[in-house]
Design brief:
The protein is of the alpha/beta class and about 190 residues long. Helix content is about 50%, strand content about 10%. Helix 6 crosses helix 7.
Length: about 190
C-alpha cells in the first residue's frame, strides 16, 4: 500500500504550501504528492490525471479538504467512484470514506454537497458584490486594471514616433502587440 497526496489551488496567485505541509504531516512522502494550480471545475487536471494512472488497488489518496477533488457534487462523486472501482481509498483530513457502507455513502454525499454549496455561495456573493459596485460606483470597471495611464499612453505615442514597435514595447515594459493596439497598427 502506497500513500499519495493531492493538493490543489484554484488560481496561480494562491499558495499550495499549506496543503503540502499538512499532507506531509499526515505521513505522506513529499515525492508522492501531486500538486497543481488549476480550477476544480475541470476534470482534466494534469497532476490529478497523472496520480489516477499511478494508483493501484490498496493505495490511499489523502487530500486536506474534499473540495480539492473538485468543486461540484458530480465531479467529486465521479472521482470517488473511479477510485473506489480501483480499490483506492480516499482520506479527507482525518476522514476516510468507505463507499461500501450506507453510512460511508451518506457521509460522502453530504460532504460533497456542502463543498458544492460552499462554491455556489462564493460565486453568488462575488456576483452580488459586482452588481452592487456597477450600480453604485460610476468608475467601477471589471477585469484587469490597465497598466498604462493616459499620461503613459501619451509618452508612449511620442516615443513611438522615433522608435520601432519592439523598441517601444521594451521601453515601456509591455508587449509589441499592446503597443500596436494603442497605435492602431498590427504587431510586426
Amino acid at each position: 500500500m502506497t500513500r499519495y497526496g493531492y493538493a490543489r489551488v484554484s488560481t496561480l496567485k494562491q499558495d499550495l504550501q499549506e496543503q503540502i505541509d499538512e499532507i506531509v504531516a499526515k505521513g505522506v512522502n513529499r515525492d508522492n504528492i501531486f500538486a497543481e494550480k488549476m480550477t476544480g471545475t475541470k476534470s482534466d487536471r494534469p497532476q490529478w490525471l497523472k496520480l489516477m494512472k499511478k494508483v493501484k488497488p490498496g493505495d490511499e489518496i489523502l487530500v486536506t479538504k474534499l473540495d480539492r477533488l473538485g468543486r461540484s457534487l458530480r465531479i467529486i462523486l465521479n472521482e470517488i467512484d473511479e477510485l473506489t472501482a480501483k480499490q483506492v481509498s480516499v482520506t479527507v483530513g482525518n476522514m476516510t470514506f468507505d463507499k461500501s457502507t450506507p453510512t460511508g455513502k451518506l457521509m460522502l454525499n453530504v460532504m460533497a454537497s456542502f463543498a458544492e454549496f460552499e462554491r455556489d455561495m462564493i460565486v453568488d456573493r462575488m456576483q452580488g458584490g459586482r452588481a452592487y459596485k456597477r450600480k453604485t460606483d460610476p468608475k467601477y470597471r471589471e477585469g484587469r486594471k490597465r497598466r498604462l495611464t493616459p499620461a503613459m499612453v501619451h509618452a508612449m505615442r511620442e516615443y513611438y514616433k522615433t522608435h520601432t514597435q519592439k523598441e517601444t514595447a521594451k521601453a515601456f515594459n509591455i508587449s509589441p502587440r499592446t503597443v500596436g493596439n494603442y497605435m492602431g497598427k498590427p504587431c510586426k
